[in-house]
Every structure is written in C-alpha cells, then in structure tokens.
C-alpha cells in the first residue's frame, strides 16, 4: 500500500475495518483493488441506511487484541482442523469472520472476550502459560474439559458455555466459506433445471413419483 | 422554520397512488396502459432488481454470512428494505396487547421478497358469516373476482394443479416442479394422517410466459427477488418497470405521505407528502387518489386526513377505519429426519418455496374452532448461512454417526464428520390460518405520539381470541402426527401448550395484516363499497389489504392483485363516464 493511500485510510479510521473487508490478516498488505478512498466495497445490494451502518462497523477499532486473535486461531483450528476433505478454520479465515461478527452482534462480545480470558486463566492455573503458549497436549486437555457439555465437571460450566459459542461461531464461519461449502457438498446456488429426485436416490429410499406427479409436473430433457 | 413552505407539483395527474407493492403496482400497470397519467408516491427508495442484486451470491459475499440485521430482518440476502422497527417511525401498542408490524420501505414493497404463495379465495371465503355466523360476508363473491383471478394468472404467471377442490379454486396454471426428497416423505406422512397434500401454487414461471421474462432457474432464492430471470412475481419486475415504458408513470420515491387532500365538496384532490431527501413538504394533485400503502398505513393516512367535511378522518363516517385488523395465525415446528442422515449430495434448491402444500382439509362443524389453515413444508439441503448447525451439541450425541455413538459436543475431525452427516436432514412445517376479524381488534391514531416527520402514529390494540388459539393447538397436534408418521424427531416447537397459547405467532408477525378499510354494502358498517371505492368520497379508493372483509386461510397477495385490477378498471370506466 502506498503511503498516501494509507494516510487516507487512517484519516477515515477505516484501516482496521478495511483489512477485514478485504479478508486480509492484520499486518498483511492490502490488495491492489482496494479503492483509494478507503470506502468498503460490497458484492451485494446495500441500501443507503445499510451502507451507513456497514461503514460504521468497519470504522471501529479492532475488537480482539493480537493475543486474543492468536488464541482464536489456535482454538478455531482445534475445532475445525484440516483433514482429508478440507482445510482448517484459519484456512477459511474464520478468525477474521469472528472479529467482524462480534462488532455486528455485540451480544457476543463479552462472552467471547471473557471466555478467552477464562480459558487463559484456567491454563495459567494448570500449566502456568496462556492457552496459545501451551503444548498441543495441554491445549487438548483443557479443551476436553469444556467440549462435552453432558460430562463436563460443574466447575467447568462457564468454559463449556464459552466453548459452545466458539464452536458455533467457528462452524458457522467455516461452513459459510468457500472451503466449507465445498466440504459439505452443497451443490446449488447455480442455474439449474429441477427434474426431480435422481433415480438412484429414489431407489435408495424405496420411493417413487406417482403417475399423477410425473404427468402433471414440469420435466426437462 | 422561516423558509417553511409547501411546494405544489405543477403536473396534474389522473391518479395519485400511495404505495407501490402488489395493490399499487397493479393499479399503476392498469391505469398507465389505459393512457392515464399516474404518480406513484413511495415512502422508500427506488429499487431496481436488475441493479440491486443479491441473487446467486455466495454466503461469504455477506460479511455476516447472510445473518439478519435491523435493516434486513430476513437476512442479508433478502430483497426487502424495511423491517420490524424503522428509524424515526415509531408505533405504539395498548397495554397488554401485542402487534408486530413489518413495514417495507422501497419500490415494490414486500412483493420483492414474499413467499410467492398465490392462492385464490374460494366461494366460502367470501361468505363466512353466512356459514358460521362470525365476522361478515363480503359484498362480492367468488364469481365477481374469478375473471380477475384468471387474468392475474395469465398476466403474471403461476404454477399449480387443477384439483377440482370446492374452496381452493382451479386456476390457469403452469406445471409445478416435482417434489423434493423431504417433500415425498412429508407427503406420505401427511397423507397417512389424513392431510391432503397437493402441488403448491406459487407465482413463479416454470415455463415461458412472454419475451419480457425468463424461466425459473431453480435456485431457491425467490426471497432475494429474481434479478436474473424475472421468473417470480415482484411489483417492480412484473408491473412497475414494464408499465413505466408507457411513459405514463412518474415515481416519487422517499416520499412519506402525510394526508389525502380534499376540497370543500369533500372530494380528494391529491396527496401531501414529505420528501425524505430534503425534508420539504410537497403536494401532488390527481383526479383520483388510490391508497395502496398497506392495510395499516392506508388506515393511518385516512385517519390523519381530517377536514371539515371529514371530521372523523377521511372515508370514516362509518367509524370502521382501523378496525377489524387481523393477521393470519401461525404456528410451526421442525426437526430432523434420521432417514436423511448421510444423504447423497445433489442440487435440490428447486423453486423458492415449497413444492407441495396442504390446503385446509377439514370441516369446522366437527371442530371446536372456526376457520381453517393451510400447511407449508420445508427441509433439505439448502445453502449454508449464519447459524449453520448452531447448537450441534444438542444433536450429535443423540444419534449414531456412521455407526458410532459419540459424546454430545466435541471438536476436530469428528465434528467435521458430524456436520457432513447431519447436513440436509432438517424438516419442518408451519400453519397459516384464518383469524376472525372483530371490531375490537384495531389500530387508531395515538393521541400523544408523532414520527420524525410530525405525522401522528398508529397505536395498536389486537388480541387473539379462543378461535385462533385453538387453531394453533390443532396445528401443533397435526404437525406432531406428521412428524411421528415419518419417524422424524422434533427439535423445536414441540413443547408448546396452553400456557403459551400453543406457540401461536404474535398478531402481525405473519405479515398478512388486513381489514382496516373494509368494503361492504352498508356505508354505516364499511369504509369502501364493493368497487374498493370510499362510500364518503367517490374519487378515493383503497386497493391493498385494507379493503378485505376477511382473509381466508389463503395468503392475500393474489386477491389484492385481482381486486386492484378490478378497481382500476372500474376507475377507468367511471372516469370515462365523468362520474369521478
């Protein structure tokens, strides 16, 4: 980014937000197509009132500290790791999504910020380290204590509540990303001619269309 | 306020229409094609589905992944501007009452995102008082509206099937889409419960209608409006922009109507409005004024249009304006269908809405409530959005996943497996029923409160009666039986009981409000005559849901379109005869 552009961005206090809008991690260079004005670009219809709101969101300072973002990244990748089918939560930029969504939905702010601190304090008591600095084994130990609501100990309930929210946000962020949608195998959102349930699927469920349905419904060849 | 003044539009129109949804769009279309000069006063901004696009966007195109905001309560891709609460435009409720009020603010209003469920009223629906002694009969019957339903079918396009049902009339239908997998399960389970299931009737083009519009691309996104193919009905795509080609329509957008203006003879002369862009006051004159601002906004406008000749508000000698307000009843539940776990993936988006539905199938004489409901169904492999698999810890410990019993919650590769396994197994259903319109359910002008434009606001006073609550109970019992019959597990909506009125929707929540400017033969008991024309002001018409005497268990849009077409042609005739 050239200096003039960066000054302009700072002037409109859109720097932190701009990074999110274009999907860059903090510290990364901005993409070349970032408008010189620092105006956020939207790929879907926005009315005037929405634009005002979106800009105010993007102009906010970063909600999570660098330490918290690093913790979110580690924890997110424990929840959604890379496997043989698809990449991890951080590959899908889930931490950036969470940074945005807590601004859009402030009700998540205290549970997330407080939950992250709760996690660090638990780790500090057990291992004398913050969560992100613990060994993988130590991280899994604490995650196992809060990831299973029905068998977690009573004194871990606040951690369970936090982890459930973190799991929800991580799954939502991941499965609404390009990587996650592909992982699920969602095959729509593209022009189609709906010709009915595929034959092999009908057969699998021992179902069939009635004569009436076949006759009265639209078919494509 | 030294420079306060009211600017008069120099151009005189044949008709000034307030609102641009189904009723206003149809009136503009008919009048403009007849050569009349029309001015549409719209409270929201201009909106062109060809430019304002959310169709075919991916979840990640929305920074909040399709979640809702105050500005788009139905989600970030939904095509309707407005919502449950508008900045600077409050409304109030009488203590102890509830009313949810959706107000669209844009060209085309709610037609840009509605469910496209396009049901004709049947012969019984116009004559309910004669059947069960409740409410009132309409001054017209099915035979009066049938020719207009036929023409709306042909002009706009609708799919469905002719079933020869007594109170769910046949129409001029395109072929419906085949049921999806969950819909075959639902159909079998409902049929087993004695509930009739037939192809749905939606105003979506499954076949070619004309050169102006394309055919459905089965993306399931009618809620986003069909920008690419114009294959579903919205007022902008199908009525307003095509009618603007006549050169006979001017649209004044961002214009909040304040009053209907009248002269000393008590006739309407035009509309005054505040332009949101410059906050200046304007007046526009027309030979005829047509209200299509939505049931409640139209009644508000009438009640705020007081003059010496119309001291009780315009068209309100009967004192019924604002009264008989009623919405559809609603109740719903949903869950998962274990047979669909780990299912094969394919594109089953289909049309935007259900492929099959259940029209009312019972005889109320054998039931403890009046009036019926229809059932809408959903499920399957939809586009993931914000909230996807939220609360999976309540699901993944309850079922074997790939043959393994897991502990609820979890993380890691196992959690990814669970997400794939459960995807596309959701099913659910909702009832939409007919409420009894009563005088004691109403909106009125709040004597103490104005909006940011200084326009007095509405105060609502609506309560459900036993009829509606018992109907919701019946819905829930029916839905549970259908879910049970196919082995589905209810995950929400199954615990309602008499303590929460069986989970009935709040009045207004279903967004089918109607009845506030009702028609009738007796000027003492109705605001409009059978031509949607004010008894007390012959060049004033109301063509939205306000004019409805009752609203059946049929979504009201198709009838709004038919009645608006009918009223508009009456206006043309009367203008020709110099009667207006």
TrEMBL record, chain A:
Its taxonomic placement starts with: Bacteria, Pseudomonadati, Bacteroidota, Chitinophagia, Chitinophagales
Record's InterPro entries?
A: Gluconate_2DH_su3
Identify this protein by name: Gluconate 2-dehydrogenase subunit 3 family protein
| PROSITE patterns linked | PROKAR_LIPOPROTEIN (PS51257)
- A Pfam family per the record: Gluconate_2-dh3
UniProtKB/TrEMBL annotation, chain B:
Keyword hit for rRNA-binding: no
Q: Which residues form the Glucose-methanol-choline oxidoreductase N-terminal domain?
A: 204-327
Supply the alphabetized keyword list.
FAD, Flavoprotein, Oxidoreductase
The protein's matches in InterPro entries, at most eight in alphabetical order, are given as: FAD-dep_OxRdtase_2_FAD-bd, FAD/NAD-bd_sf, GMC_OxRdtase_N, GMC_OxRtase_C, P2Ox-like
**Pfam families for this protein:** FAD_binding_2, GMC_oxred_C, GMC_oxred_N
Annotated FAD-dependent oxidoreductase 2 FAD-binding domain residues: 14-45
Q: Where is the Glucose-methanol-choline oxidoreductase C-terminal domain?
A: 441-563
Question: Which cofactors must be present for this protein to function?
Answer: FAD
Tell me the PANTHER family matching this sequence.
Answer: PYRANOSE 2-OXIDASE
Family in the record: Belongs to the GMC oxidoreductase family.
Identification of the protein by name: GMC family oxidoreductase
